[in-house]
Write a structure and sequence with these properties.
- It is a single chain.
- By secondary structure, the chain is of the alpha/beta class.
- The chain folds into 2 domains: 125 residues, Four Helix Bundle (Hemerythrin (Met), subunit A) (Up-down Bundle); 190 residues, Rossmann fold, CATH 3.40.50.
- 37% of the residues lie in helices and 17% in strands.
- It contains 10 helices and 14 strands.
- The strands form 3 sheets. It has a 7-stranded mixed beta sheet, with helices on both faces. Strands 11-8-9-12 form a 4-stranded mixed beta sheet, with helices on one face.
- A hairpin with a 2-residue loop joins strand 13 and strand 14.
- Helix 1 packs parallel to helix 3, helix 3 packs antiparallel against helix 4 and helix 5 packs across helix 6.
- The longest helix has 30 residues.
- The radius of gyration is 19 Å and the shape is globular.
- The structure holds 5-S-methyl-1-O-phosphono-5-thio-D-ribulose (MRU).
- The site of 5-S-methyl-1-O-phosphono-5-thio-D-ribulose (MRU) has 18 residues, from helix 2 and strand 9.
- The site of 5-S-methyl-1-O-phosphono-5-thio-D-ribulose has 18 residues, from helix 2 and strand 9.
Length: 330
């Protein structure tokens, strides 16, 4: 994983946030510029920028851009903060920026912007460091010849660098270990097919794409030895919200005796949230199931579609959490 692949950066003297448009992957690698809180919020809501840690990073950097271009801090923060509900990293990053902003009264506009930018970049750099630590702690769990399953995309494309669930995979591959990764396609938005398969192939990792409903068969065949997933919010009791389908993988892993690890930075752990019952699950439009990513509609016109974007895996199905502080087995 090269340090050079930067998918979220300031440009035009800090008046623009440039991000890789993930809705176009894997067929097109196009970068888009965002100049206002509305544009940043829209990019997060449409998953142009996505993945819990990267949402937090883009929110902090986008807030700087909005303020640089003359928007009110509080208004811009409110707009960006309302873009998606489940990943706690969004409010975590914005609150961290607000704490810095609160100490800046009396400074010139230039000094204030410089300090805000510094903090946003610190959030990004710290996340990259965190991901590398997750990789260093997690890589020992991957043994020669193993089959590794991952769901959704918790990789470089979802973080400041390297990824969370994909960090142990990159780190083990860099050590020269030979193993195979199975990527769930992750219906309905296909983050596994479009993003995980794309970045793992780009990183030279042996990757096999499967449909979500094939994981049970692969586990029954003994092809999966370990599961790594990311997280959008971990409640105080350990219940974990992540991409829809994660719960199903966890249930299967328990049934087949496969270790199931949740990987994420401590900024994704929400102590104020007591259990998974309190986590707000984003519900997205039904067309993501019925039409999007198909050449023509794949369901009868007007059919009701239910599209919860995340689910909650109860703590008892989780073998352990891998964070920047180490592996917490429970
Ligand atoms: O809807 P998305 O693509 O933002 O969902 C992403 C996930 O669920 C990831 O697994 C999670 O955010 C962790 S990313 C390191």
């Amino acid at each position: 994983m090269t340090k050079e692949w930067d998918i979220c950066y300031f440009s035009d003297g800090g008046q623009m946030l440039t991000v890789l448009d993930q809705t176009l992957l894997p067929t097109e690698e196009r970068y888009v510029g965002l100049r206002s809180a509305d544009e940043v919020a829209d990019a997060i809501a449409r998953l142009v920028v996505r993945g819990a840690p990267l949402i937090g990073i883009a929110a902090a950097m986008g807030l700087c851009v909005a303020v640089t271009n003359g928007e009110d801090f509080e208004e811009a923060k409110h707009k960006i903060g309302a873009s998606r509900p489940t990943a706690v990293n969004l409010s975590w990053a914005l609150e961290r920026m607000a704490t810095v902003e609160a100490g800046l009264s009396g400074l010139t506009f230039e000094s204030r912007i410089a300090r805000l930018r510094e903090e946003a970049l610190r959030i990004k750099d710290e996340d990259a460091e965190t991901c590398h630590k997750i990789g260093a702690y997690g890589r020992g769990l991957i043994k020669e010849g193993m089959g590794v399953l991952t769901h959704c995309n918790a990789g470089h494309l979802a973080t400041g660098h390297y990824g969370t669930a994909l960090a142990p995979i990159y780190a083990a591959a860099e050590e020269g270990k030979h193993f195979r990764v199975y990527a769930d396609e992750t219906r309905p938005l296909l983050q596994g097919a479009r993003l995980t398969a794309y970045e793992l192939e780009r990183g030279g990792v042996d990757t096999t794409l499967i449909c979500d409903n094939m994981a049970a068969t692969l586990m029954a065949q003994g092809k999966i030895d370990i599961v790594f997933v990311g997280c959008d919010r971990v409640a105080a009791n350990g219940d974990t919200a992540n991409k829809i389908g994660t719960l199903g993988v966890a249930v299967l892993a328990k049934h087949f005796g496969v270790p199931f690890y949740v990987c994420g930075p401590q900024s994704t752990f929400d102590k104020r949230c007591k259990s998974g019952k309190e986590i707000v699950i984003e519900e997205r439009r039904g067309e993501e199931i019925t039409i999007m990513h198909y050449l023509k509609p794949m369901a009868p016109k007007g059919v009701k579609a239910y599209n919860p974007s995340f689910d909650v895996t109860p703590r008892e199905l989780i073998t352990g959490y891998i964070t920047e502080s180490g592996i917490i087995e429970i």
